[in-house]
Amino acid sequence: MNSSFTPLPSTPSRVFSASFDDTPLRSNSSAVRLYPKLSSSSNPHASNSTRAEMDPLLRRELRGAVFYDLAAFVDRFFPPSDAIANVYDYAVQAGLYDATAARWSHWPTPPTERRVLSFFQDVVDNSLLHHLATITSADDRRSIYRYVPSNEAPLRNGDCMRKTDLLLTTQAPSDRVNFAELRANRYDWGAVRVVGELKRNPKESNDEDTLVQLANYVREVLGAQPCRRSVHAFTLCGQHLRAWLFDRSGAIGGRQVDINAEPLLFLRIICGYANMDATQVGFDQSILWDRGRPYIYADIQLPGTTSTRRLEIKTTPIFSRHAIVTRGSACWKARPYLDSPPTSEDSWTYAVKDQWRACQRESECGIISSMMTDDSDHIVGLPQYISYSDFQEDGKPVDIASTVRRDLIAPKRKRDDTDAAAGMPPPPKRRSVSTAASEMPPPPKPRMGAAAAPAWVASHNVSSSCKRRASDALPPSSSSHSKRLTFGERSSSVQATKAVHSPSLPEFNNRIFSRLVMTPIGKSLDEFSSYAELLAALRDAIKGHQHLYEKHHVLHRDVSVYNILISPPDHPSAGVLIDLYLAININRPNNSGASHRTGTPDFMAIGVLDGQPHRACHDLESFFYVLLWLATFFDADANRLPDVPGTLWNACKKVFAGGGTFEDVAMMKRAFTAADQFETKCLARLADDARDALGPLLADWRDLLFPVCDEMRLSDDMHAAVVRRLQALKEEKLKLED
C-alpha cells in the first residue's frame, strides 16, 4: 500500500489523486488483433501474423506456465480399459504389431512426414480405429473420429495462416479414410478437436521450438472456439509420442512414450483422443446444442421473475480474446430460450460474459454485488447486471486445477492479509497424489445433450466405461519428477531447460471460471455508425467510470476499446463501461497476490507502463488512447482503414514485438504525445474526416492529460470536452443540411 494514501471519507466528493499498489503487468498474444493485415485475408479482424511475429509473443506468454513429464498424466486422461486391450490383441493377431520385435510392423524408417501420415491412414484410422468401432455400440460408433492430414492448406477462419500436420475434426469422414483425397481439404479451426505435430527427429520432442509451434495451433483453436476450456494436442517426434493439454493457465504434458516399446500406452492415447466426448475433449459442458442452436445449460434467474430460465446464446461472440494464457474473456448475445426462436434481432436483450479469473484475484462478482446493493436505479454509463457468480458444477467451483487438470498439478495458494503483513507467504500446502492406476479418479461423466452440431458433439467414451485389465497397468515413469519448461527471452535458438522439482506437485497459477449476464446487449465500440454515436458512448462511459470511483471507490484499471459497448438507441446510456475483472476497491489493504495482470499496452497510460501505481487519471488517459486508436484506424462509417506508417501505434507495435519492455512503449508514447509533437506525429496522420471531427477533442484531452493539472476535476473536464464536441458536430451537420 502506498504510504501516502489516505483512506476515503464516507462521502467523498473528488478523490482522483489517490494511487494504489499494483500487480505486475504482463502481455499476451491477443494484442496483435488490434492490427489486422487487411490485404492478406478476407477476415477483417485477422492479424495474419507470421511465425516470426507470433513465436516471440507465445514464448513470452508461456514463460513459466509449462510443465511436462507428469507421471500420472496418461492415467488421468487416458485410463486403461478392456476396449483398448481388445484393440491391442487385434493388432497383434492381424500382424500390425510384432510383439516379439516390439515394434509396429508398418512403422516407417526413416519416419518422414508423408510416411508417418500413411501409417496413420492404413494402421491407425483404417485398422485400429475401424476395429474399435466394430466393438462399440451402434449408437456410439459414429463418435469415433478419424485422423486427417492438414499439412498442405492453411485452415479456415483463423487469426493467422496456419496448417498443422494431423487433426481430429468433426469435418472428417466417419469410417475408412483416403488421405490422398483428403490432403487438399481446408478444414475449419472451429471444428478442430485435437491437433498433432509430426517431426522426424526424436530429439525435437523436448525442444522449445516444437512446443511453440504446437502453441500456434492451440491459439487458433481457442480463438475459433471461445467456449473451450482446454485443448488436447500431441507431438510425435520419430517414435516418441508426448501428449499435451493446453488451458488458460498454460500447458501440461505427460512423459515421452516410445510407441514401439509401449504399444498399449500408444493405443490408449491415440484411441483415447479419437473417442473423447465433448467434455473430455475440452468443451464447456454448460453450453449445449439443440437443433443447431447453442444455449446456456445453467438456469439463470431473470429480472422481475422468481423463476429461472435457460438462455440461448448467439454463436458468434461480440468479442473474445485470442490467446492461451489469459482470462479468456468471451461475450455473447443472449435471449431467453424458446422452442420457437424469435426472428427479430431485437430479441437478443442480454449479454453473457465468461472468463477465467486468477484465483488470487477477488471475483468481480463481489464488486458487482456491492454496487447492486447501493444502486437501485439505472446508472449512466454502466450496465445492469442480471446474474453474476463464479460458475459451479455439482456444487463445486469450475477451475483449472481440479476441473481441467484433474489435480495433476497444485495451484498456488492465495495470499491472505497475514501473509502480506509478513512480507511473503508461508510455504504452500501441497497435496500428494498417488500415481497408481487403481487410485486415479475417472474422467468426468459426459453430459448428454440433444442433437449434436459441429464442435460440441457429445459422445460416449468406451475406454472410460470399461473395466480395466490388470495386465494393462501403467509402466513406471522414466522420471518421478515433473519438469518446467523455461523459455528463452528472445532467440528461438535458445534450448528448453529442465528445472527438476521435488517429487511433490509443482505449483501453477490457477484460474476460476465465472459467468455473468448483463443488459443492454450493445455492440462493440469499433462498430459505431457515426462519430456522434462514438463520442456519445465515450461520454457516458466516462460518467460510468466516475460513478464507480466516486461512489463505490472502485478503480476500473482496464479501459480499452473492447471494454466499452455502444448501447441500443432506446437505452438511457449511449455507451456502457464493462468488465470489472481487473477492478479494485481502492480501500483494499494490499494487492491480490496474483502473479501478474495482463493488459494491452496500446491503451495503457504512460505512468502505468512506467510502473507507477494505478490512479484514476490513468484510466482517463486510456479513454484518450481509445479515441486516438479508433480515429487512426476507422473512417466515419467504422470501415477499417489501411495501415498508415509512422503512427504511434506502429511505433509501439514494433517496439513491443521486437522484445521491448513496457517502459520502452511508455517512452514512445511520451514522445508522440508531447505538446510540440502531437499535431505532426498524431493528428496529421489521421484521415481528413477523422481529423476534422475528432481532432479538436483529441487536442483538448491531450492538454488536460499531459500533464494533469487538476486530477479532482479531470473526469468532469474530459466529459465537458466531449459534450462541447458533440454540440459542434450537431451544429456542423445542421449547416450542411441547410
UniProtKB/TrEMBL annotation:
Segment forming the signal sequence: none
Region (Disordered): 402-454, 467-498
Domain (Fungal-type protein kinase): residue spans on this chain: 184-630
InterPro entries tied to this protein: Kinase-like_dom_sf, Pkinase_fungal, Tyr_kinase_AS
Residue ranges with Basic and acidic residues bias: 404-418
EC number(s) stated in the UniProt entry for this protein: 2.7.11.1
Superkingdom of origin organism: Eukaryota
Pfam families for this protein: Pkinase_fungal (PF17667)
GO terms, molecular function: protein serine/threonine kinase activity
The reaction(s) this protein catalyses: L-seryl-[protein] + ATP = O-phospho-L-seryl-[protein] + ADP + H(+); L-threonyl-[protein] + ATP = O-phospho-L-threonyl-[protein] + ADP + H(+)
The protein's name: non-specific serine/threonine protein kinase
Organism per entry: Sphaerosporella brunnea
Lineage of source species: Eukaryota, Fungi, Dikarya, Ascomycota, Pezizomycotina
